[in-house]
Amino acid sequence: xxxxxxxxxxxxxxxxxxxxxxxxxxxxxxxxxxxxxxxxxxxxxxxxxxxxxxxxxxxxxxxxxxxxxxxxxxxxxxxxxxxxxxxxxxxxxxxxx
Length: 97
Prior knowledge:
Layout: E1 16-23, E2 28-33, H1 36-45, E3 57-66, H2 69-80, H3 84-91
Antiparallel strand pairs: 1-2, 1-3
């Protein structure tokens, strides 16, 4: 039996998520979290991003699971670099301009 001082405990990997929330004005906000439902409630209550100060969050329209935080950050950056039209295709709805 090994001494407890020699045991190396690895934290269990936790899933991270990239998400898109639609604002009342039609804009899409992209972020990452470990709990999409909790984060959406924060955005709705005004305790999330300042993005929603001018137009409230109305719906979580896209969630993608990632293997870890680094993966989620990379995917978030890729989505933020997309055009509005590409984001709308990702969400599965045509851009209604």
